[in-house]
Amino acid sequence: MTTDAPREDLLAGLSFPPGFVFGAATAAYQIEGAVDEDGRGRSIWDTFSHTPGRVFEGHTGDVAVDHYHRYRDDVALMADLGLSAYRFSVAWPRVLPEGGGRVEQRGLDFYRRLVDALLEAGVDPWLTLYHWDLPQALQDRGGWADRDTAARFADYAAVVVDALGDRVRHWSTLNEPMVSALLGHVAGEHAPGLQDPVAGARAVHHLLLGHGLAAARLREAGVADLGITLNFTPMRPASDAPADVDAARRLDGQQNRVFLEPVVHGAYPADVVADLEAAGAPLPVRDGDLEVIAAPLDWLGVNYYFENTVQAGPRPAGKGPSPFIGGHDVVELDPEGPTTTMGWGISPDAFTEVLLWLGERAPGLPLVVTENGSAWADEVDAEGAVHDPERVDYLVRHLAAVTAAVDRGADVRGYFAWSLLDNFEWARGYAQRFGLVHVDYATQRRTVKDSGLLYAELLRRHRERA
Fold first, then answer.
1. Is 139 annotated as a binding residue?
2. Which residues does residue 367 pair with via DSSP β-bridges, in sequence order?
3. What is the pLDDT of residue 2?
4. Is 277 a catalytic residue?
5. What GO molecular function annotations does the UniProt record carry, in alphabetical order (predicted)?
6. What does the pLDDT look like over 381-397, one tens digit per residue?
7. What would the CATH number be for the domain defined by 7-465?
8. What distance in Å separates the CA atoms of residue 156 and residue 96, rounded to the nearest whole number?
9. With contact defined as beta carbons under 8 Å apart, do 85 and 415 qualify?
10. Has 371 been annotated as catalytic?
11. Among 86, 66, 72, CA closest to 439
12. Within a 10 A sphere around the Cβ of 16, how many other Cβ atoms?
């Protein structure tokens, strides 16, 4: 499938219910830049990216794609693409430079201007409070491994909703707490760059506790559309051998169920609790915590990129530390078939299965695909176009996977492509491009890729059918 095929053929069979939300997503540290402007404090990603050897070729988010100064142009791009919604995150250290206490109004003013521009353009803002950029001041006091950070997160939520609650309808507390907790505290691949299983287990619980405490503050402020975004990766055993089946169970527990089940059902999975205790890294649960975590939600955000096949056995040294507590004896196999430039496999059928599985595990809770996308080596050609047939293929196949899930009964209400713009891809720096819009990092010139044009055509047709 390539962009040379007629769009009629590419989009055939893609039909979504009336009212279905189509948007694109970003995250503050990945796009904003302006890290030293208007009183912004330092975040753990400022520290991590400036630590030699942590990020590809020493890249940082200091400038990123300069969205802080170019947001009006970027909103105009969203309007040109026909996006009905835009998912973005607020940078906690831009609002509370020390993590709490003094409020930086200049930081809040930026988000006020952004939200106003979105509304003027007819683009509905979907706000995420935390997309991994913890204030360094809080990390210095223990970060997410310290219970007090959950309370500080609730205070931060109250500050943001007080400023923006009159104009923003859709709120999400956390993005992918699995990454913050396990890649950040166990594997050390992400900020704060620790390899401490005990800290990782504590971070799992305190992130979820922070979600529940923040949800209560948002509800008190009148928020009526509230969610949390979790990343789901199916874990398939390499064989029917009991050891492989158990390896898949263990990784599924820490990747998926330990975050989903307390939020939806108010309890941690018993097998995961036992696994973590056996590894010497218990969850620090106190009386009443799980009732707080299980705050009622209006939707569940679903981030999906790929599936994993796993088997029992010693983890190869070349793969680095496992992000899973006690995961040193489980191997995540390299994917078969084509991969993105991230090295991720392409499994749209598994996407359908995830959405159906969530319908069973969280009955009655609407789903919103808050991230889905792929990285490829995109370039602007001599005519000024960006032809990205691989991303077009990935996008169409994964949209078809959503359609298939809806046809089979999944209550999916929206889809946000990751990402609107090429940007700072965390530890991979600027080497990975996920955007529907290409960014020349030297000039900051934006160019809509073929995938962005196709997405815009899909959205146009959806509006016409409404």
1. no
2. 300, 412
3. 39
4. no
5. beta-glucosidase activity
6. 999 999 999 999 999 99
7. 3.20.20.80
8. 7
9. no
10. yes
11. 66
12. 22
